[in-house]
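TA notes, week 10

Several of you asked for a full example with nothing omitted. So below is the full record: structure tokens for the whole chain, then the designed sequence directly under it. When grading your own attempts, check the secondary structure regions first.
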């Protein structure tokens, strides 16, 4: 039961209600542990916060640190801030954090600038293809795609302005990420003071560590100031405690677009308010699903409560992509139908439900024809975990997988 705060008395904690409004609750009614809290408190609640000193120690003493942080642990948004607070950006140096996708770069940079209370483009900035929101003199934490960092190497092969480079979501193993990792390993030989952080929720930490462990002697002696250990350190961080219940279909589905649309409609009919994020494979699928959903919503009994259906893929304009982050009228339910660009590093605050088709478009190289194709193929378990994680970022959620248990 909601309470009302009487001015002059101690302000009770705030809690989001199911419909997206804010209710005032007594402390004892807040069992879930989520709700409105200051950004500083939110930061402290992230699992990675208690590893702050360990991370800083490992980065200080090891050339490469591998952080296996489960989804929602806070690695992307917090580690660059820890490094900045510890002085890794002093003296005009810059901390870089790469992401495989442009949308993630923009979203994470914007969140970190908000957490630090600074204007995006000044102390915290980002660079993606065709867009550079950094300031040469003041940017200390820079988010960028791995492709952009590779391009920077053409001008500055040793990436001299960076003190720490964090390669995030390294499990995705895109060609850019792989080439970047290989070149960073070479740069480390020439710049022993450079620190690398390789992070991911699902990386094979041991094989990554073996790759970066070099027995060749670096300039200077290990253990001396500025000459870190060459053996990579590995740190595991548990995920955020918001529970995501997973549901599977009993029989295989023959049409994953239709199945996703039906799942969205039954969530809309039966589940409490909360936005829905649907993963399909590409623009064609997404446009078809938007059409089907709009038609279904018009014929549905509960259409009065309304669905706001929004597509999300990399070919959309920036303004259309930004719509997925915008609030919608109270009482409506947002349905974002996305490719895997929403799979990692993205927080869509209202999302409580994820519908996973189990497919994505993947690049396959055919060595016989020497042609690279985009093929619709089943996703990996790592991707499925990342997708489900989008439902539990700020509150408990549910993930409906339109596939059999694997
Ligand atoms: N834009 C945002 N709005 C609200 N909360 C956010 C936002 N961005 C991040 N958070 C909060 O911070 C948490 C940690 O986000 P972060 O991206 O650092 O995690 P992560 O460990 O890198 O996860 P992932 O591997 O899934 O990207 C999220 O679970 C969410 O609770």
């Amino acid at each position: 039961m909601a309470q009302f705060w009487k001015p002059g008395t101690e302000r009770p904690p705030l809690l989001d209600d199911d419909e997206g409004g804010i209710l005032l609750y007594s402390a004892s009614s807040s069992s879930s542990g989520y709700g409105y809290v200051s950004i500083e408190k939110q930061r402290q609640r992230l699992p990675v916060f208690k590893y702050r000193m360990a991370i800083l120690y490992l980065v200080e003493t090891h050339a490469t640190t591998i952080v296996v942080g489960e989804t929602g642990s806070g690695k992307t948004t917090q580690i660059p801030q820890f490094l900045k607070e510890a002085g890794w950006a002093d003296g005009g140096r810059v901390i870089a954090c790469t992401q495989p996708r442009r949308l993630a770069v923009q979203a994470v940079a914007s969140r970190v600038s908000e957490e630090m209370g600074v204007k995006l483009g000044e102390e915290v900035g980002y660079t993606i293809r065709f867009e550079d929101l950094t300031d040469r003199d003041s940017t200390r934490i820079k988010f960028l795609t791995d492709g952009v960092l590779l391009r920077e190497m053409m001008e500055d092969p040793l990436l001299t302005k960076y003190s720490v480079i964090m390669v995030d979501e390294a499990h995705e193993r895109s060609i850019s990420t792989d080439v970047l990792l290989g070149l960073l390993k070479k740069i480390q030989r020439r710049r022993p003071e450079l620190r690398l952080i390789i992070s991911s929720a699902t990386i094979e930490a041991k094989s990554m560590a073996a790759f970066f462990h070099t027995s060749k002697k670096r300039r200077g002696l290990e253990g001396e100031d500025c000459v870190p250990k060459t053996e990579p350190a590995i740190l595991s961080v548990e995920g955020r405690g918001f529970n995501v219940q997973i549901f599977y279909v009993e029989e295989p589905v023959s049409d994953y677009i239709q199945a996703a649309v039906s799942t969205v409609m039954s969530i809309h009919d039966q589940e409490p308010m909360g936005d829905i994020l649907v993963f399909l494979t590409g623009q064609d699928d997404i446009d078809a699903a938007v059409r089907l959903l709009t038609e279904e919503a018009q014929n549905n009994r509960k259409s009065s409560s309304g669905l706001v259906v929004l597509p999300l893929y990399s070919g959309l304009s920036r303004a259309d992509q930004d719509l997925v982050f915008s609030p919608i009228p109270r009482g409506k339910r947002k349905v974002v139908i996305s490719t895997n660009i929403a799979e990692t590093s993205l927080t869509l605050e209202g999302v409580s439900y994820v519908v996973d088709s189990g497919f994505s478009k993947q690049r396959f190289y055919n060595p016989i024809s020497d042609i690279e194709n985009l093929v619709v193929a089943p996703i990996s378990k790592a991707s499925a975990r990342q997708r489900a994680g989008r439902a539990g970022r700020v509150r408990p959620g549910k993930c409906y997988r339109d596939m059999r248990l694997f």
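Residues 1-7, 11-35 have pLDDT under 50 and may be disordered. Use that as a sanity check on your answer.
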